[in-house]
Structure formats: C-alpha cells, structure tokens
Amino acid sequence: MSTGKHKLAQPDPGDVPKAVINRLSLYLRELQHLLRSGKTTISSSQLGRMLGFTDAQVRKDLTCFGHFGHPGIGYRCEELVAAIRRILGTDRVWTVALFGVGNLGRALLGYKGFSAKGFQIVAAFDEDPRKAGATIDGIRVHPMDRLDEVIANQRIQLAMITVPAAAAQHVADTAIKAGVVGVVNFAPVTLTVPQEISLVGVDLATELEQISFSVANREKS
Amino acid sequence: MSTGKHKLAQPDPGDVPKAVINRLSLYLRELQHLLRSGKTTISSSQLGRMLGFTDAQVRKDLTCFGHFGHPGIGYRCEELVAAIRRILGTDRVWTVALFGVGNLGRALLGYKGFSAKGFQIVAAFDEDPRKAGATIDGIRVHPMDRLDEVIANQRIQLAMITVPAAAAQHVADTAIKAGVVGVVNFAPVTLTVPQEISLVGVDLATELEQISFSVANREKS
Lengths: 221, 221
Fold this sequence. Notes:
The structure is a homodimer of 221-residue chains. Chain A has 9 helices and 9 strands. In chain A, α2 packs across α3 (55-63). Chain A has 2 domains: 2-87, Arc Repressor Mutant, subunit A (Orthogonal Bundle), CATH 1.10.10; 94-206, NAD(P)-binding Rossmann-like Domain (Rossmann fold), CATH 3.40.50.720. Chain A starts with 17 loop residues before the first helix and ends with a helix. Chain A has 221 residues and is α/β, with parallel strands linked by helices.
C-alpha cells in the first residue's frame, strides 16, 4: 500500500497548537465518512467546505506534517486517512484504564467512539468496594489497591480520570507511578504532572462556555 | 460594586479563537479557587504559572476584552471573575434541554459542573417511550413529540445533543425550529445549522487523540 511509504514530517508535539490537532481529528472523521460512501479523492476546498474551514486552512494544517496533495487530483482519501492516523498516533491500539465509575465513568465505559479510534479501555478502578468486582460493558472494575498490579499486567498506557476533583491529583500521581504515560482528566480541576507525561484536561462545562460566549456576544452586537 | 461598572470591549465573537475562550474558562476556574481560599489579588505571572502559561499569554488574552490590571496590584480576583463571567456569558442563567437519555445523557444530567456555571438543564427528551415520563436527577424526561411545547413553555435557549449520530441532525433541526439558539453536539457527526445559531461540537474521542498525538510524538523524538 502506498500509504505506508508516505514520509511524515515530525514537528515537536509541543509546537503544534491544540486547535490543529482538533482539526486533524475533524478531517479524519469526514474522510472516513467519504471513504464509506465510496469517494476516493477530495480537494482541500471540498474538505474545508464540509467543515466550515477555508481551503487555505486545510492546506496549512496538513503542510505541517508533509505533502499530501496530488496535482489535478487533490487528496487521496485513503492515503490521507492513513497519514492522519499516523500523525495522531491512532494507527495503533492504546490501552486505557478508567478511574472512577460514577455517572460519567459509566458513560465513558459505554462510549463506542473510543474503541473505533483505537482507544481500548481494558480496566476500570473505583475506591468504592461495592463497585469493585463488577463488570460494566465488558470491563472489569478493580479496587484501587490493585492499581500497580493491573497497570503492569495489562500494560496500560493511558489513564482516564473521572473521580471527584479532590481525588484527581492523587489518582493521577498513583497511575503515573505505576507506569501510565498519558492522562486524560475529566475532573474539574487543573492537574500537575511530570514533564515527560502527556496531559489533556477535559472540562465539559467549558464546552458550554463556548456556546454562551457565542450566543451572548451575538445578542450584544 | 466596582465590577459592574467595568466596561468590556466587545470583539466580534467569530474573531475570538476558541483557544482564547478555553483559556478564559481556565483563568476563571483558578480565580474562583483563589477567591475561595481568601486571595484577593494576583499577578499575570502567578496566574499563568498556575496553569502553565506565560504572563504575556495571560495579559494578551485579557487585553482582547479590556484593561483589567491595576499598577502595583495586578488583577483584583473578584473584579476579574465578574468580567470573565460577563465575557463568557455565564453571568446569567441559561436554560438547557438535553436530547437523548443514554449513558452519556444520564451522566450529563448528573454533572454538577453545569449548574455551577449557570447552565440549568430543565428538560430532557428521549424517543424511547419507556424513558419518557421518568425523572432523572430531578429533570423530567419528555417524549420527542412534546418538544415544541416544552421548549416554548420553559423558554429553553440551548440544546445539548447526545442522541446517536444518525439522529443528531434531525434533532438539531427540530430544536432550532422550536426556538433554541445554541447547540452543543456530543454526537460523533458534524452538524449543519443556520448562520444565526451557535454550534459547538464535542467529540470525546478527539480529546484522546490529543493524548495519543502527544505520547506518540514524544516517543518518536
């Protein structure tokens, strides 16, 4: 397959704005839709139009990582899907442990979108002894004191944290000590992690602030 | 209170990058923590340090909206909290309806972070007749065919969509026709809305792609 030979530029991950990565995710989603509907090539302006971006934006985002366009053809969907998955690191399977089996934790355990992108939740943890031992959506819930053992045995790479804010830093510290290299934090608190650990904070209310900002400022103008 | 008199600059909401709004949300969260712990003033470099940003970044973000610093004092926490809440439009209560009471919908109905920021989920909808009529976390679940009536009666402004991808566009169209002015879409599909409607797409797997990108590119370098 030609897609495997495509050489990617490798910018320092710290130099790539979060917004670019977000847009790559969107491009990937649209390209996968296109492939499923039988389309094999697309231009930057068509791809941009589908998502409300300019063609220049699309080209600029992709140019950070290599040259993907073909003169007179545009992008080959399959090739670009493979390249974006390699850029995003979703061309492999990531093992994930979820910490905190409350409402949100349960929702995430059942969220289909993760495994489709290569994120496999293989274990869950909860400090409530009544939850530990249960199996939810096929995933075993362990007590917190088995953390070291489970993370080592199942070679867990990423931690997804949905415990209450007050417990989140301690859980992150413990998971990192046990070997995870990336933390996705859903608790509404800012965590501190060592420099070599990747951290993404997800605050669901922040997404609503985007909406209120947008609606409120439309009203004013 | 002096905070009420503070005049805000009003840039076009379309001109303000999403990343700036995200950072304002983070500043707000930290400032509220500080206020609760009794701190009344803070410098841009202290605020930046707490979040891993430079002081120049903090000042630049805030300068878009007005002049908030006081020479020799820094920012007054209470004043800046009030200003950011006005900028973000969270100095008021927003009424929200949730569409789709699956796992994620249930988690969002119980998510404490929304009402703390002024987002009040006042109604839920589900097309499953077995769910309609139930009350979850104090919120009534209605059948979809009561949508027009409930949105009008409860003056619902925002729609939060957690239905399956295939149903999301139809639900958004219906809610907008009934009067909502903002849509927060959790379904993994890109929606199209009229220009005067605000739309934010939340793809939970996208957050994981940030992490895999970061970890994968650290490994390469």
